Amino acid sequence: MDGSAEQSAVAAAPQITRRWDGDSLFRTLVVLTGISVLVVLGAIITIMVTGGWKAFSTFGPSFFVTAVWNPVTQHFGAVAPVFGTLASSFLGLLIAVPLAFGTAFWLTALAPPAVSSVIGMAVQLLAAVPSIIFGMWGFFVLVPVMAHYVQPTARHMFGHVPVLSALVSGAPFGTGLLTAGLVLGVMVVPSITAVMRDVFVSMPAVLRESAYGLGATRWEVMRRVVLPWSRQGVVGGIVLGMGRAMGETMAVTFVIGDSNHIGWSLFAPANTIASLIALEFPESPAGSLKLSSLMALGAILMAISFVTLWCSRVLLSRGEVKAGKRS
Q1: Which region holds residue 325: left if phi is over 0, alpha if psi is between -120 and 50, else beta?
Q2: Distance of alpha carbon 37 from alpha carbon 112, whole angstroms
Q3: DSSP state of 187
Q4: How remote is the C-alpha of 65 from its chain's centroid?
Q5: How far apart are alpha carbons 98 and 304 in whole angstroms?
Q6: For residue range 2-29, what is the model confidence (pLDDT) as tens digits?
Q7: What is the SS3 assignment for 214?
Q8: Chain centroid to CA 80: how far?
Q9: Span 83-92, pLDDT tens digits
Q10: Which of 61, 250, 260, 283 has the most CB within a 10 Å radius?
Q11: Which residues pair with 75 in a beta bridge?
Q12: Beta bridge mates, 70
């Protein structure tokens, strides 16, 4: 008996060794994968900062507060494209978030299962449409509508109101911040809707059934049960949509007007960081101050994305703390 036990132990030893070798190899690969993400991110940040250092050192702090972009005089500032990026992204999210929430709520709580599955798949397919298609749609369909109908009507109705008159002023070209915001809103609605729908569906059914059993309506269940439970997923979907809106290039380039000026009118032509880089990069010689300024704008866009992500994490953590205190 002792001899057979020893033989079994000797036979099992290579298998244990191979198993531990496989575990250690898998662990090493996973660790290298995680480190590679940080290395790639650090490399991108380093390239953007070093490439834009010439502009940072030449203009100093005035680069962040100047709205001039003049390649002839070699005077560049970041305020105008940063303003266009933030304004168009805000308008896009202002349009997209209510539509995405309403669509996700309808698909998960009101629509029949057969209809919900078909429309849910259509929403996911719409999220895969290339951005240049949205840009062409905006240029050939949305721009004429804005120029011939929306802006003249807005000027007729609000042109004499003291504050609102500034928001509807300008020539009716059809391109501008509001048009870019509409295109961005249509673009990011499918992405945010898909994330919200998946989060709402993944909620345990017993929580909804308990609320319905206590007499809650569908809206009360969504507001008091589903949203608090899925807060992180909802905010994550909104941040995902914001990231796509701020980094969008071709669709915005078609409809925003390509003007490096700050205008408070919703119909004023403007520029975003991404569209300005796409338009000016081919005409920027290597080592020039203009190219360095474009690289500096790329670094600023990354910084804005990081700040947005950090703010979302802070809001989530505060919401969790408040929820813990109420419980």
Answers
A1: alpha
A2: 42
A3: H
A4: 25
A5: 23
A6: 555 555 555 545 555 555 567 888 888 9
A7: coil
A8: 20
A9: 999 999 999 9
A10: 260
A11: 70
A12: 75
